[in-house]
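Shipment paperwork, digital attachment
Item: protein structure file
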Amino acid sequence: MKIVHKDFVPGGPGKVKMVPADSDDLWYVYNLIAPGDSVIAVTVRKVLREGASGGRDAERVKLKLEIKVEEVADYDKVGNVLRIRGKNILENEHVKIGAYHTLELEPHRPFVLKKDVWDSLALHELNQACDPAASADLAVVIMQEGLAHILLVGRSMTITRSRIETSIPRKHGPSVAGYEKALSKFFENVLQAFLKNVDFSVVRCAVIASPGFTKDQFHRHLLLEAERKQLRPIIENKSRILLVHTTSGYKHSLREVLDAPNVMNMIKDTKAAQEVRALQDFFSMLSNEPHRACYGPKHVEVAHEQMAVQTLLITDELFRNADVVTRQKYVNLVNSVKNSGGNVHIFSSMHVSGEQLAQITGIAAILRFPLPDLDDIEM
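Attachment content:
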C-alpha cells in the first residue's frame, strides 16, 4: 500500500490518501472502511444529455465523488474490486447531493478515506498494509495424482491461482502405458501453470506438497524440464523449492504445509506464520492445560476482567460488524489486553488459520493462570 498523504489525529478525526497495490491491500481497505466514513474517488457514471435531435443520449462521464459510506457492499477477490455504497456529499453537476452511488476501488487507483475516529484497529490495519515485512508471499502447489491446486499465500489472504485436473488411468494391467503418458501430460500442465503463476521475485519460496511420491516425481519433472528448456527462474531458484508431505491434494491440506518446520523457517517473521504459531500454541494449551485456554466472547471477556489474558486471538471479521457499539467493544478489548501487557493477534478471515479460528467463534485466549470456574459460565 502506498500512502500518498495522511492528516489525522490518532483516536480523532482525519483523512488518508492511499493507493492499493494488490489484492492484499484491497483486503486491508475492506477492513479499514466502515459505515459512517467518507470516501473520495474518481468514478465513472452514466449521465443523460440532450441530443441534437431533441432526444436524450446516454454518456459515460468521469467524475470525482465523495460518498458517505452506508455499506461496504462487496469484496470481489477474483475481480480484484471492492465496492462501497453510499450517498454523494460533494456538489457535482451530474450527481445530486444525496444521490446513491456505488464506488469501485481497484489496485493502482488512488482514493481518500476520511474518518471521524481513527481508532487503534484502523491504525493497526493501516500499519499492516504499509509493512512490507509482514508479507508472506508463499507459492504452494498441493497435488495428488490427477489433481493440483496452485495457491498464493499473501499477507492477508490465500488465493487459488489455478486448479489442474486430469483423468489418469490405473497403474496396473494393460493400461500401464496410458498411465505413464497421462501422468506426464498432467505434470506438464502443472508445470505450465507453475511458470505462469509463480514469480520468484515476489515469493519467498515455493512449496510442492502431496501424499506419497507425487511431489517427488513432479519436482524431478520440474528440474529436468528446467534444464532441458533453460527455464532460468526455476534453475536460479531451485534451492527455494521445498517439498512437504500432506494427506491429500485438496486445498484444506494447506494447514499441513504451514505447519511444516522447513516452510515455517522460510516465513517465520511474517504475519501469516505468527498467526499459525499462535493458533498452534492455543490448541496445544487447550489439550494439555484446558483451564489455561478459553474461547467465545463471554469467556474471553470474563478472563480479561480477571487480568488473565496473556495472548488474545481474534479474527478481523468481528471488527466488520455493522453495529458500531459491537465493533467498539472489540476495539476496547484489544486495547485493554495490550495495555495490560498481553499479546494480540488479529487473524485474517481469508487465511486458513483465520478460518480455523472462526470455527470456534472467532475469538480465543491463552491465559496467564488457570481459570477452572470459566466452565460454569454459559458461552
